[in-house]
Amino acid sequence: MPVPCRFRPSLGFVLLGLALSACAHAASRPADADLPAWVTTVGARSTPESTREFRVRADAAQRDGRSPATKEIQSAIDACAAAGGGLVVLDPGVYLTGALFVRSGVHLRIDAGVTLRAVQDNAAYPRQPTRVAGIEMPWPTALINVNEAENVRVDGSGEIDGNGPYWWNKYTELRRTYDPRGLRWVADYDCERVRLVVIRSSKDVTLSGLRLRRSGFWNVQVLYSEFVTVSGLAIRDNQGPSTDGVDVDSSRHVLVEACDIDNNDDCICLKAGRDADGLRVNQPTEYVVIRNNITRRGGGILSFGSETSGGIQHVVAWGNRGIGTKEGLRFKSARTRGGFIRDVRIYDTTMENVPYPFTFTLDWNPRYSYAPAAGDDASHEPAHWRTIRTPVVPAERGLTEISDILIRRAEVRGARQIVTASGLPTKPIGNVRFEHIRASGQTAGKIEHVRDWRWTDTEFTTRDGKPIGIQNADNLESPAIQARPR
């Protein structure tokens, strides 16, 4: 049993705390924005106050990555929680570990020189009910889990390493057998890859300052939670598939700020369930502030969807920057998702060499999004296959409404196609406003099935000087286009 001792904060930890505090105070609001009052209420309202320290007792082999230290770390966490809360710390070293569960009142501090590295053993991550990619189902627990807890902090300047290649290779091999059989739609669910950090059904949780790398699947998922702060993370070395940066999933009053994200899928993504199962749960993502983040590789700086069934609303973002990210402000859904994306305000975005800065689609990735009808042997299928196949009835309920989107002040350089938008004939994308936009790229883009789009003080500079290609649009203004001198 770990023994408590007096807490003496290191100089490095004090400086880190001061830096994070300064960063948070420097996150000024857009000067000309009439922001709703709720933007000041997001994020964790409290953190553990007790400074009683519980040190992980691990031998030399467990501090140099040779032997798992899961039991020793969990023992310190549990002892801290049983004592009413406090601080859990580790001596410098590399600790192999399976799933860890951070309890209410616990501050898990991962200092510089400490690495928590995932054990490459499926048995080390017991399957529990959760939601993954929009579907509720049993799934392996994450490396770091905050489940049904309150007043929790996980921070420091150390590292959490997902040891990802083990799960990346597993997925690659599964796709080689699934794709020829027409099973792309279920591959992500059948290949149970370990997430790095999951905050589920919890409140007043802070995750900050850490370096996250090589996640087996998503890096951070905030699920069914409220009053959560995700701040100052450096997310790196994610060459594998589906290594989302930060996913806010059917959660509310969330703050994501000052993160630097380099990954291989959506960088910061808002989600709210998929298809019939997401409509059944019917829990929105709402009251979210996303500010002063940098994204590098990845699928989108800010992505909305494709899991939209419970609805995404009341989102304010500002001061975010994309450098070489594939897409910028990305709105995506599918014909069976349902729900909505509305009341979104995005200010002061900078994009450098982002090929597709502004994208909107209601028919995203059909091979993944739509399950084929069940065959005669469907009774032998796994339960989650049947969940995904469940039709949305009536079909109109599966159409997603995108409306009331404001994008104000964006600087875009080095784009390939500045705007790409494709609604549906029966569900146009409506009421999108672009204000004070300066964008340069190869082409202006293509828009179809939209209504009530406005462009104020917006200018595109393109190589060909051609206007946006517009089809089936109602009440649509066009931005000014000028040719770039060759």
Structural write-up:
The chain has 486 residues and is mainly beta. It has one domain: 3 Solenoid (Pectate Lyase C-like), CATH 2.160.20. 15% of the residues lie in helices and 44% in strands. The chain is built from 8 helices and 35 strands. The strands form 2 sheets. It has a 33-stranded mixed β-sheet that branches. A hairpin with a 2-residue loop joins strand 9 and strand 10. The termini are far apart.
Entry keywords:
single chain; 486 residues; mainly beta; Pectate Lyase C-like; 33-stranded mixed β-sheet; 8 helices; 35 strands; disordered N terminus
Distance N terminus to C terminus?
72 Å
Tell me the CATH topology. Pectate Lyase C-like
What is the CATH-assigned architecture?
3 Solenoid
Secondary-structure content class = mainly beta
> What are the low-pLDDT stretches, counting only 5+ consecutive residues below 50?
1-27
Strand tally: 35
Which percent range describes the beta-strand content? 35-45%
Largest sheet: 33 strands, mixed
Number of domains: 1
Mean pLDDT: 93
CATH superfamily descriptor: Single-stranded right-handed beta-helix, Pectin lyase-like
- CATH C-level name: Mainly Beta
Radius of gyration (CA) equals 23 Å
Can you tell me the overall shape? Answer: globular
Percentage of residues in helical conformation: 10-25%
Query: Helix segment count?
Result: 8
Lay out the secondary structure.
Blueprint: E1 4-5, H1 11-26, E2 53-55, H2 60-63, E3 64-68, H3 70-82, E4 86-89, E5 93-97, E6 100-101, E7 106-109, E8 114-118, E9 127-132, E10 135-140, E11 144-147, E12 150-155, E13 159-161, H4 165-178, H5 184-190, E14 197-200, E15 203-208, E16 211-213, E17 220-223, E18 226-231, E19 234-236, E20 246-249, E21 252-257, E22 260-261, E23 266-271, H6 275-281, E24 285-291, E25 294-295, E26 300-304, E27 312-318, E28 321-323, E29 327-332, E30 340-352, E31 356-361, H7 366-369, H8 383-389, E32 401-422, E33 429-462, E34 469-476, E35 480-483
Parallel strand pairs: 2-4, 3-5, 4-7, 5-8, 6-11, 7-12, 8-13, 11-14, 12-15, 13-16, 14-17, 15-18, 16-19, 17-20, 18-21, 19-22, 20-23, 21-24, 22-25, 23-26, 24-27, 25-28, 26-29, 27-30, 28-30, 29-31, 30-32, 31-32, 32-33, 33-34, 33-35
Antiparallel strand pairs: 1-2, 9-10
